[in-house]
Every structure is written in structure tokens, then in C-alpha cells.
Amino acid sequence: MSWALIADSSCNLRGYMPSAPDTIYRFAPLKVNVGGQEYVDDEALDVAELNRRVAAEESATSSACPSVGEWADRFRSADNVIAITISANLSGSYEAAIMARDIVLEENASRNIFIVNSRAAGGKLELLIVALDRYLTEHPDATFNEVTAYICNVEQSSTVLFLLSSYENLAKAGRMPKVAGMLANKLNIRMLGTASSEGTIKVLGPARSQKKAFEKIIGSMREDGFQGGDVFIDHVFNEKAAEDLAARIAAEWPTAKATILPCGGLCSYYAETDGLIIGYGW
């Protein structure tokens, strides 16, 4: 039986090759609309150019989820499909995936398709995809129900943190309180946030320096019960800060394994320049 691990492009894995046998990884692209032009968040996207266009655009910009057809195309890739979407409270991606699942199952009821609402974006989705791949590698005879039970448990015991220097796009799109975004931009301070249990962005507080911000991140990870393991750090043209954070995490937890990835279009659009998105579990 073949497996397909599918995510939308809020997962910043590009060109990922699963280790598990008979398993593929694919992603469904979100889109960013700027000045009447649509940018597809795929491997060909020039993220730097997108960011320049967004910064220069005076009119409203927006994002759009993958279409039902795009999800359906990917769901036809294997006998067993696990799909992971950006938080259902941040995008219509989850609902589009649900509709696509129903269409594909009407075509062929023998397929197995399970959709996970990550209640997050960025690093948490990467954590879930890699955890799935590892589980399938270590348990090649696992049933579909065993795999879905496993990934639901991982989703419940993992989260994401956002360390942002600019909040304009998030505030405009209603993804965070406008007052908090305006205040943070005006004072030129970093803001730490996390995904709430409902999947929206919850502001944890400001940090006036990178050192203070990293202390807050380590504190949040400690409170969550992180004891080492995989950490995914996504960055928007801020690799040095991602490397510094990875070193700080390793100093606190020597068994931690940090993977640093550049943000694709969707995550760059919302995290904006210098932003970091950190996914981890416990």
C-alpha cells in the first residue's frame, strides 16, 4: 500500500523526500494577491520579489488557500493519504481539503484520506510531516488507523511560536489584534506569539532585544515540557538569527535537533522580513 504525506504550502518543506518505503511528499500551494497579481507559493516563487511587491503596494493585499481541485489532485497520489493544513481559523485550506476528500472518495471509496488541522503554520507542519515519515519508516506494517491515531497525538503535543519584527500584514488580515500590531510597529519591538488552542495567534509579549526574545522562547519551551528532540526554525531572510536560536536551544537541551528552513511565500507574507517561526513538540 502506498502512502502520500500532503501539506499546504504553509509548510516550508520544499523538495522533501520521505525515507519511508512507498511514500511520497507533495504540497498544495497557497496564493498571495498583490496589486491584482497572483503569486503562487510553489518552488518557482521568488520570495524576495514577493516581499518587495508587498512592501511597495499601497492597496490591500491578501492570501488565498489551495483550490479543491488542487487538493483532490494530490489526494489521488496514493492509497493512503495524510494531509496537514494551516490552522482552519487562519485559512480556508482545511475546508477545501475536506471537500476534496469527499470528491476523491466518491471516485474511489477504497482510498484512505485523513486530514489534520494543524492549528498552526510553518514549523509545526514540518514537525508533523517529518514525524509521520519517521513513524512509517519505523512501523512499515502500521494500519491506517494506527497512523492517524499517532499523528493526532503528535499534533496535540506540539506547538508553534512566532517571533516577529513587523506585524502589518497580520494585523491587516485580522490574524492578530490590530492595536497590538500597531503598537509593536510604532515602538519597533519584537513580539512573541503562539498558536492558541483555537488556532489563532495569541500574543505572549514584547521583547526589546534578540537576547530577551530568545529567553522568552526558551521559557515557553520549558513551560510546555520540551525535553529535546526535533525543532524546526523557519526564517524570513534571517538565517543568522535562526542559527543563533538553534545554538541557544542546543545549549539548553543537548539532545535537541534543530532544522533551519527559509520561509516560503505564505509564511514570508505573514511573518514578514526577519521573522522566525519555531515548531516543536514534547
Protein described:
- With 282 residues, the chain is α/β, with parallel strands linked by helices.
- It has two domains: 3-30 and 65-156, 3-Layer(aba) Sandwich (Rossmann fold); 158-281, Hypothetical Protein Tm841, Chain: A,domain 3.
- The protein contains ten helices and 13 strands.
- A six-stranded mixed beta sheet has the order 10-9-8-13-11-12, with helices on both faces.
- Helix 2 (68-75) packs across helix 3 and helix 4 (123-138) packs antiparallel against helix 5.
Helix-strand blueprint:
Layout: E1 3-8, E2 23-28, E3 31-34, E4 37-40, H1 47-56, E5 62-64, H2 68-75, E6 80-85, H3 93-107, E7 112-117, H4 123-138, H5 144-156, E8 158-164, H6 168-172, H7 178-187, E9 190-195, E10 201-207, H8 210-224, E11 230-235, H9 239-252, E12 257-262, H10 265-271, E13 276-281
Parallel strand pairs: 1-2, 1-6, 6-7, 11-12
Antiparallel strand pairs: 3-4, 3-5, 8-9, 8-13, 9-10, 11-13
Q: Architecture of the largest domain in CATH? A: 2-Layer Sandwich
How many distinct domains?
Answer: 2
Provide a count of the helices: 10
C-alpha end-to-end distance: 30 Å
| CATH fold call of the largest domain | Hypothetical Protein Tm841, Chain: A,domain 3
- Strand ordering within the main sheet: 10-9-8-13-11-12
* Total DSSP E strands: 13
Low-confidence stretches: none
Largest sheet data: 6 strands, mixed
Helix content: 40-55%
Computed CA radius of gyration, to the nearest angstrom: 18 Å
Strand content: 25-35%
Q: How would you classify the helix and strand content by structural class?
A: alpha/beta
Order of helices and strands: EEEEHEHEHEHHEHHEEHEHEHE
Mean pLDDT across all amino acids = 92
**What would the principal axes of the Cα set say about the shape?**
globular
- In CATH's first tier, which class of the largest domain applies? Alpha Beta
Keywords: Lipid-binding
Protein name: EDD domain protein
Pfam families: DegV
GO molecular function: lipid binding
